[in-house]
Amino acid sequence: MKVYTKTGDKGTTALFGGTRVPKHHIRIESYGTVDELNSHLGLIRDQDINQHYKDILIEIQHNLFTVGAILATDPEKAILKSGKERLNIEKISSDDIQKLEDEMDTMNEALPPMTHFVLPGGHQTVSFCHIARCVCRRAERLASSLNNIEPIESHALIYLNRLSDYLFVLARKLTLDLQADEVKWIPEKKS
């Protein structure tokens, strides 16, 4: 199988279902940003961190491929003539969202309460988490914008929202695990 098809040489690409759209279409931006996020998660997973976090991250990466597939499907071609869904895969469920919430609750039990915003950084692995969190927020903004134009599955949007929260809590937990400094943002008062 060749990787290159030359079909996108004029600045268009095909959605799942065959519809061609410009490569700058909000739908392409949405799933492209989810793909970018997935790559950042792979970078975090490659770090020297607890195996449990690696296992959760790989599960999240699988779910992000599902989110990407949902975003890449033309809603007008989502249902086949036979009445079946074109995208014949398990979708993001409330259980997937609940798992992120449960993981956050477990990590939060070990963390000191937050009293201030924290500055990203302190350790390279923690910084990778903060970068992934920001990319996740961008993916969520794009998916939300797309949802205003062409509705998408609500669980996919909720999942991105919850995932950015998860990545923030993971960054804090890794700060603790790696014994890195968590620098609070304390703005200086005007004199």
TrEMBL record:
EC annotation from Swiss-Prot or TrEMBL: 2.5.1.17
InterPro entries named among the record's database cross-references: CblAdoTrfase-like (IPR016030), CblAdoTrfase-like_sf (IPR036451), PduO-typ (IPR029499)
GO biological process assignments: cobalamin biosynthetic process
Record-annotated Cobalamin adenosyltransferase-like domain positions: 3-173
Primary enzyme class: transferase
Pathway linked to the protein: Cofactor biosynthesis; adenosylcobalamin biosynthesis; adenosylcobalamin from cob(II)yrinate a,c-diamide: step 2/7
Catalytic activity from the UniProt record: 2 cob(II)alamin + reduced [electron-transfer flavoprotein] + 2 ATP = 2 adenosylcob(III)alamin + 2 triphosphate + oxidized [electron-transfer flavoprotein] + 3 H(+); 2 cob(II)yrinate a,c diamide + reduced [electron-transfer flavoprotein] + 2 ATP = 2 adenosylcob(III)yrinate a,c-diamide + 2 triphosphate + oxidized [electron-transfer flavoprotein] + 3 H(+)
Entry-linked Pfam families: Cob_adeno_trans
Thylakoid recorded as keyword: no
Subunit composition and interactions: Homotrimer.
Protein name (database record): Corrinoid adenosyltransferase
Species in which this protein is naturally found: Seonamhaeicola sediminis
Taxonomic lineage: Bacteria, Pseudomonadati, Bacteroidota, Flavobacteriia, Flavobacteriales
